[in-house]
Design goal:
The structure holds 2 protein chains of 2 kinds.
Chain A: H1 2-22, E1 29-30, E2 32-33, E3 39-45, E4 49-50, E5 53-56, E6 62-68, E7 77-80, E8 85-88, E9 94-99, E10 105-111, E11 117-122
Parallel strand pairs in A: 1-5, 3-6, 5-11
Antiparallel strand pairs in A: 2-3, 3-4, 6-9, 7-8, 7-10, 10-11
Chain B: H1 28-36, H2 38-49, H3 53-64, E1 70-77, H4 82-93, E2 98-104, E3 109-114, H5 120-129, E4 133-136, H6 139-176, H7 190-210, H8 212-223, H9 229-249, H10 264-288, H11 290-297, E5 302-307, E6 310-315, E7 324-327, E8 336-342, E9 344-347, H12 349-352, E10 358-360, E11 365-366, E12 371-372, E13 377-383, H13 389-401, H14 406-436, H15 441-455, H16 458-478, E14 481-483, H17 486-492, E15 497-501, H18 502-506, E16 507-518, H19 524-535, H20 541-552, E17 561-566, E18 570-575, E19 578-583, H21 585-590, H22 599-607, E20 611-617, E21 620-631, H23 635-644, E22 648-652, H24 657-667, E23 671-673, H25 681-690, E24 695-700, H26 705-710, E25 713-717, E26 730-732, H27 738-773, H28 777-780, H29 786-806, H30 815-818
Parallel strand pairs in B: 15-22, 15-24, 22-23, 24-25, 25-26
Antiparallel strand pairs in B: 1-3, 1-4, 2-3, 5-6, 5-7, 7-13, 8-11, 8-13, 9-10, 9-12, 14-26, 16-21, 17-18, 18-19, 19-20, 20-21
Helix pairs in contact in B: 1-2, 6-7, 6-10, 7-9, 7-10, 8-9, 9-10, 9-15, 10-29, 11-16, 13-16, 14-15, 14-16, 15-27, 15-29, 16-27, 16-29, 17-27, 19-20, 23-27, 27-29
The chains are: A alpha/beta, B alpha+beta.
Chain lengths: 123, 819
């Protein structure tokens, strides 16, 4: 009896793991517009990127300002591969990354090892 | 939402100040500044949001300045309060050309955005005038320093955590194996229960302090619905601890006596090992960026410049373009410039990778950070601060190290699924052992689950590519090879054909005298002296090469009179009373000079790809001189090296077939594409690609830009100090063909290293996880101890980084090493 119960619980746990890590819906935030027309978003780096999904409009310059608030070296660099930009993130400083997306789509930014991930959704 | 202090847009997670829910802060600093003067900032933001004219005007100014703007960083001293911040900002903003100035009170720095090139000295003067001290910060310097300090601090903390966990582990291990060690009370006795309780209590600080980063890291990731190495370790060590603690405190929970057991040793030992692994990995990773640190360390600190006629020592940040800098033997050249007086030999190896010192005389370019060896000289600064060649190199290398190699994109896809997949495998393992395992099934299930969680090493996978790339690209910079991206590096190792532009790459690109023969009773020297004297007024490159050859032999030239040029054929002039004619056979025929005896000589010279000219004196054949574009010293060796790498070398040139073949024969080139017009170069590359070849093009970074872009990998031969201007995936700082071979060797070595790392990391995980799950148990009775799993995990990522560091020993091959 308890074997059945343990296995059912195990299957439920597997389902929970798959759902929690793989089926998350991006929440995201809309980038603000600065006085010079740049779409700007501030991203805190601590165990991940907050917010991890930034929504921007195509054709306008985007500035993502990263602030790393942890000493874990895993997140010491952020790479936006699609736009060929990357930056080192010294702990506690604001580091801007600038680019102008021209085509709609979803572009990932991640730490160098690809463990922490976020994305820019261009529409 | 906007930060009212710095004006930056912030997310909902931003820091807050009670009572001002409408504001968020990007940093603790801004929050503090706001608290210090909340009325001002709260009010100022109100007026901002009304869209005041000032803000609009500023926006317009910014928009206009979007092109060609730059920012300068200043270190500001003497600020004591938040109001100092606004004083300095106002002073800087008032400087013409400044769009924006932001002062960071916490770090005592100012960032100034300028629309036009504003010298740092003007900005520092403005700060000084407002009552503070300021100096320009060359940004590369200070970040690397704080990083080094931060990394050292972290290493020491991890080592302290390791020692603590290790010390706790010793008694815990002893007491955990009554079947091995003597003197441990029997199972079920009260004494053992007390020992277990003590072990449980002892391991609490191991979890809470030594292993704290696993829990904070796991929690941070969990909030973002992601999982990492910390998640696995945290789950593993806490599962072992919780099971043990339940067995101690609530033995009734386990009806079967056999189930009442403790695994505190797993908690303590795995924590100790993984913490040690993390510390060692941190150490090793710091070494991967050593090349970059070396580059940064090359920057000179001070410069001796002439100001108002006297020599003054100033910091290198204060040198401005146009300053005359004095350099003595043994000193470091502080910035880029052009020699105005004096001469010396300069060791440029640290920037160009070229070991032999370079002679510098008036008019020569000098590179900042190189070392003056023999003489003293003065030079005029042409590039300072962020514009120097070294600063450009540092930026290029840093960007390249941050880029991704295509191979990593595949790994990234895997690593996104890796950790949750391991967690699922761990649960499946538990279920399988619980259902089918031997008694006590629950104990086996828990232990195998913990082993699976602990053995999986996502870090080894994640570190495999970036660390090798980091070392490889850094190593390139040490050898004067600037690789622009991971893409370029990866493509370079697949190259099978190298296309080389002849002029300026294989050859010097400047004709020089190669042969003289005399036909009358004149000596060869006399023939050369007369020919050179006649050519003295000529501006033709062939004429110049003859004059230069005469000067090299210290011949005294006479002034020619009645000089006349016959375009396309030669020249005539009177020298020392002789009528000298120099040119083609046709010119001789036109002048009625019999040149028959020279014909066979001319033919053989032309055969060798040389341009030969007949010299006649007073209507009689006197001699033959020949000039040719000569080979660079290292071309033959470089091409031999390319051949040894198994590459086909193709020469591309606008010259005629005969000249091209002659040069190709001398250096041993396989295939020649001659008579190619400059704008056809890219098409020729495309044709080679159509043959299925992976083509590298070597050429001048500015004139050959289209061909370099068309090639799979474009290698630009550096032509000046503006390395960032060169197009091309790889820039060779020293315009030498040997750099091409070295670049390809380096890319092959780096990609080999990456493959080793990836294969190792994949093999480790794909073998380790099933073994940990007990796959070998049914057949061989082999079950991995979680302690061994922890050790394997801890050292697998260290191994990856250590392997990447082996690349630091990369050396280009030389002729003597092969033989």
């Amino acid at each position: 009896m308890d074997v059945v119960f343990v296995n059912l619980a195990g299957l439920a746990l597997i389902g929970l793991i798959a759902w929690y890590f793989w089926m998350s819906k991006p929440t995201g935030m809309l980038a603000g517009i600065t006085s010079d027309g740049t779409q700007e978003a501030f991203i805190v780096v601590k165990g991940g990127y907050s917010p991890d999904t930034i929504r921007v409009a195509a054709g306008r310059p985007v500035r993502l300002v990263f602030n790393r608030q942890e000493s874990d070296p895993c997140s010491e660099r952020v790479v936006l591969d699609a736009f060929g930009v990357s930056a080192e993130l010294p702990q506690g400083s604001n580091v801007p990354i600038e680019f102008t997306p021209t085509e709609e789509g979803s572009y990932e930014f991640a730490c160098q090892m690809g463990m922490l991930r976020g994305k820019v959704v261009v529409s | 939402m906007r930060d009212p202090v710095c004006g930056m847009t912030v997310g909902p997670d931003a820091l807050r100040v009670e009572g001002y829910s409408e504001f968020g802060f990007c940093s603790e600093h801004c929050r503090k500044v706001f608290i210090a003067d909340s009325t001002r900032y709260a009010h100022q933001t109100d007026s901002d949001s009304e869209g005041s004219e000032v803000a609009e005007a500023r926006a317009e100014e910014r928009a206009m300045a979007a092109v060609g703007s730059s920012s300068i960083h200043l270190s500001v001293e003497g600020m004591t309060c938040a109001s100092c911040v606004s004083t300095v900002e106002t002073a800087l903003s008032a400087v013409p050309g400044v769009i924006d100035a932001r002062v960071n009170f916490a770090s005592n720095t100012a960032t100034v955005d300028t629309a036009i090139e504003v010298p740092a000295s003007v900005l520092t003067a403005a700060v000084v005038a407002s009552g503070y001290q300021a100096t320009e910060v060359v940004e590369e310097d200070d970040t690397s320093d704080t990083e080094r300090v931060e990394s050292e601090r972290r290493y020491r903390l991890l080592m302290r955590k390791f020692w603590f966990a290790a010390v706790v582990s010793l008694p815990v291990i002893y007491l955990s194996y009554p079947e091995v060690f003597p003197g441990i009370p029997e199972k079920g006795s009260t004494a053992l229960w007390w020992i277990w309780l003590a072990m449980g209590v002892l391991t609490i600080p191991v979890l809470a302090w030594s292993g704290s980063q696993f829990f904070t890291g796991a929690w941070g990731a969990l909030k973002h619905r992601s999982a990492n190495m910390h998640t696995l370790i945290a789950t593993g060590i806490s599962a072992a601890w919780l099971y043990s603690t339940v067995a101690v405190l609530f033995p009734g929970f386990f009806p079967d006596e056999m189930l009442r057991d403790v695994f505190y040793d797993v908690t303590a030992v795995v924590t100790a090992l993984v913490v040690l692994g993390t510390a060692l990995e941190l150490r090793a990773r710091a070494r991967t960026s050593e090349a970059m640190k070396k580059l940064i360390g090359l920057q000179a600190k001070t410069a001796r410049v002439l100001r108002d006629g006297t020599e003054v020592d100033i910091s290198v940040g204060e040198v401005v373009v146009g300053d005359v800098v004095v350099v003595r033997p043994g000193e470091k050249i502080p910035v880029d410039g052009v020699v105005v007086s004096g001469s010396s030999a300069v060791d440029e190896s640290m920037v160009t990778g070229e070991p032999i010192p370079v002679e510098k005389t008036e008019g020569a370019t000098v590179i900042g950070a190189t070392i003056n060896r023999t003489g003293s000289f003065k030079f005029e600064a042409t590039r300072v601060g962020r514009e120097t060649m070294l600063a450009q190199i540092i930026r290029m290398v840093r960007d390249a190290q941050g880029s991704k190699a295509p191979i990593q994109r595949t790994v990234d896809k895997v690593s996104g699924y890796f950790v949750p997949a391991v967690m699922i495998i761990a649960v499946l393992t538990f279920m399988t052992w619980y259902t089918f395992g031997p008694s006590p099934a629950l104990v086996y299930a828990v232990i195998t689950m913990v082993t699976v969680l602990v053995i999986a090493c996502p870090c080894a996978l994640g570190l495999a590519t970036p660390t090798s790339l980091m070392v490889g690209i850094g190593k390139g910079a040490e050898n004067g090879i600037l690789i622009r991206s991971g893409d370029a590096l990866e493509t370079a190792h697949r190259i099978d054909t190298v296309v080389v532009d002849k002029t300026g790459t294989i050859t010097r690109g400047k004709p020089s005298l190669t042969d003289i023969s005399a036909f009358q009773d004149l000596t060869e020297e006399e023939v050369l002296r007369l020919a050179a004297s006649a050519e003295k007024g000529s501006e033709h490159p062939l004429g110049e090469s003859i004059v230069r050859a005469a000067a090299d032999r210290h011949l005294t030239l006479s002034e020619p009179s009645q000089f006349s040029a016959v375009p396309g054929h030669g020249i005539e002039a009177r020298v020392d009373g002789y009528q000298v004619v120099l040119g083609t056979l046709k010119l001789m025929a036109d002048r009625g000079i019999a040149a028959g005896p020279a014909e066979s000589r001319l033919e053989s010279l032309a055969e060798q790809g040389k341009t030969a000219m007949v010299v006649a004196v007073d209507g009689e054949l006197a001699g033959v001189v020949a000039v040719a574009d000569t080979l660079k010293d290292d071309s033959t060796e470089a091409i031999a090296r390319l051949h040894r790498l198994g590459l086909e070398v193709v020469m591309l040139t606008g010259d005629n077939h005969r000249t091209a073949q002659a040069i190709a024969g001398m250096v041993g080139i396989d295939r020649v594409l001659a008579e190619v017009l400059p704008d056809e170069k890219a098409t020729q590359i495309k044709l080679l690609q159509a043959e299925g070849k992976v083509v590298a093009m070597v050429g001048d970074g500015i004139n050959d830009a289209p061909a370099l872009a068309q090639a799979d990998v474009g290698l630009a031969m550096g032509t000046g100090t503006d390395v960032a201007m060169e197009s091309g995936d790889i820039t060779l700082v020293k315009g030498s063909l040997t750099g091409v071979a070295t670049a390809i060797e380096l890319s092959q070595a780096t990609m080999r290293n990456i493959h080793q790392n990836l294969v190792g990391a994949f093999a480790y995980n794909t073998l380790g996880i099933p073994i940990a799950a007990g796959l070998l148990y049914p057949a061989f009775g082999i079950l991995l101890s979680p302690l061994i799993a922890g050790a394997a995990m801890a050292f697998s990522s260290v191994t990856v980084v250590t392997n990447a560091n082996r690349l630091r020993r990369f050396k280009p091959t030389h002729r003597e090493e092969v033989s």
